[in-house]
Automatic annotation (TrEMBL):
Record keyword Signal present: yes
Keywords: Signal
Signal peptide range: 1-24
Origin species: Agaricicola taiwanensis
Record protein name field: PepSY domain-containing protein
Amino acid sequence: MCRPFSLLMSAAIGVLLLSSPALAQVGCLSQAETVDAVRDGRVLAYDEAVPRRLRNAGEFLGVRLCADNGILVYVVSTLTDSGRVTHTAVDAKSGRIVGKR
């Protein structure tokens, strides 16, 4: 996927900020900071970092880029078919899943 499209995709996804208390934590980047981090190469764009199987793991609720123990992670929130909301942390540089709750 071309880099400009990835930047636009990240910016569009950044608009979908959750008001979930689980994500309302200190350390999450603003939409502008997220776009800057992608543009500057500090993190991969969302569509490059988050595994496809996770993007299709239920109804997408939103995503935030947050600092967790010194690393930047995408926190992806989804609603499962059973009605449970899950929050999955994906390392924003490697795309490796590093946590789930």
